[in-house]
Design brief:
There is one protein chain. The chain is of the alpha+beta class. It is built from 2 helices and 3 strands. Strands 2-1-3 form a 3-stranded antiparallel sheet. The mean pLDDT is about 85.
């Protein structure tokens, strides 16, 4: 004799719909990210011409609010230097070369 078991229907959609981020908040976060990115590039454009000659391909970690930067040949050490001074600050990591990037995709 075969028993028929009923399976509940599969629920589709978000796992936690009550945690949906409103579109206004997403737009605000995107705008803040673009402003921070612009500040990183401004600081990089100011300091890179002087630093590229002596520190080519080193890492530069920039704190956006103050414009302070930390350089080292090792990325982890540069980040540690920044975290010592700004433990909760937002930092951007770039490379001291012509493009500011670490490689090509």
């Amino acid at each position: 004799m075969t028993q028929i078991t009923s399976t509940p229907p599969r629920r589709r959609g978000r796992l936690f719909p009550e945690y949906t981020i409103p579109p206004e908040e997403l737009a605000r976060r995107k705008a803040e990210k673009e402003i921070r990115s612009r500040r990183y590039w401004e600081v990089f454009a100011q300091v890179s011409p002087q630093l590229i000659d002596d520190h080519y391909n080193w890492f530069i970690v920039i704190e956006a609010n103050t414009g302070d930067y930390f350089i080292d040949s090792d990325e982890e050490v540069a980040v540690q230097k920044a975290r010592q001074k700004y433990p909760s600050g937002m930092v951007g990591i770039m490379r001291l070369n012509e493009t500011g990037t670490c490689g090509k995709i």
